[in-house]
Amino acid sequence: MTTDISVIMSVYNGETYLAEAIESVLYQTFQNWELIIINDCSTDSTGNILADYASRDARIKVYTNEVNLKLPSSLNKAISLCNGKYIARMDADDICLPERLEKQFAFMEANKDVDLSSCRFLTVKNGVYASGGAGGRCDSEALKAMLLVANPILHPGVIGKAEVMKSFQYDMSLTCTEDLELWTRMTAANLKLQILPECLLIYRLHDKQITSTTLERQHTEVLGIQKKYYTSVLKEMCEDMQAFYISGIYFKENADIKQFMNYARWLKSLANQTISRNAICYALLEILAEYKRCGISKIAVMKAMFTFSPFFLLKEMIRRKRMAQKDIAKCMQVANRIGLKQTGGTASYPIFEK
Fold this sequence. Notes:
By secondary structure, the protein is α/β, with parallel strands linked by helices. The chain has two domains: about 5-210 and about 325-340, Alpha-Beta Complex (Spore Coat Polysaccharide Biosynthesis Protein SpsA, Chain A); about 235-310, no CATH class. Helices cover about 45% and strands about 15% of the residues. The chain is built from 13 helices and eleven strands. Strands 1, 2, 3, 4, 5, 6, 7, 8 and 9 form a nine-stranded mixed β-sheet that branches. A two-stranded antiparallel ribbon has the order 10-11. A hairpin with a 2-residue loop joins strand 6 (about 115-125) and strand 7 (about 130). Helix 10 (about 255-270) packs antiparallel against helix 11 and helix 10 (about 255-270) packs parallel to helix 12 (about 300-305). The longest helix is centred in the C-terminal third of the chain and has 28 residues, at about 310-335.
């Protein structure tokens, strides 16, 4: 029997959460999968944990790197070993909800024109959980525009056609932005990316994550990626926009309403047949919503809203509020259904208890 889904994972010193991540794959309602795990020269008990699970289930296949290759190269290695029709990502510190593979497989089978998709998720940090991506649009047009200003696609939640993943692969020169580079390169090549609006993953936030320890390197890599993406789908990014783009748009460390308004006018002027003005306005409004959480005053945010047409603004705000309510409700229903609870400051997941 052929394999429907190859789940790929790379792990380096992941002993803390690894067993729980593997268990979440074993507990899937969808059973025609293989789990390919690359042990990237771990020095803790990761190797022993992997050997134990591989001995219990033949679908779990472990490969150990002779030298530490880092994530992009290890993922490419895993992709080359896949036998599935689709390839799904999984991190060693996250948890697949039981119906993840079943629902993602059904979605990809029902939408043959979609090359890669991701999902909604729950975030968990220090025992506190919340919905992820609530209110955002899931269609390919919106994602194409959002990729101009952010990364709207959850990496460990993706599933893609195997032939697409094997053809594109990850840029091995990158260290912490390989997913953004892959999504923008796929989009520029006219591949179709979407999000399945179902909560299917628990995404763990903690202090050791690469995204919280390599900010300066991320700045450099993101700018290089986005300059290529802008040139491919719109126009070369102006030099006078680059500094503010990194600090005020993508990372929002230096949110500034006046500069945002200048950037918004410039970006909207670039709308074309590839990315519509409406989609660009949607992406900009998403950034403005983030500005409210960056300490920008309501008066300043309201001032920036005058850069949008009243009709678009009203329609989008109503849509976003309704969608956010639905997304949050779905996530909380999932949390309650699987028994996600807080015990002594840490989250426990009874569904994986035997």
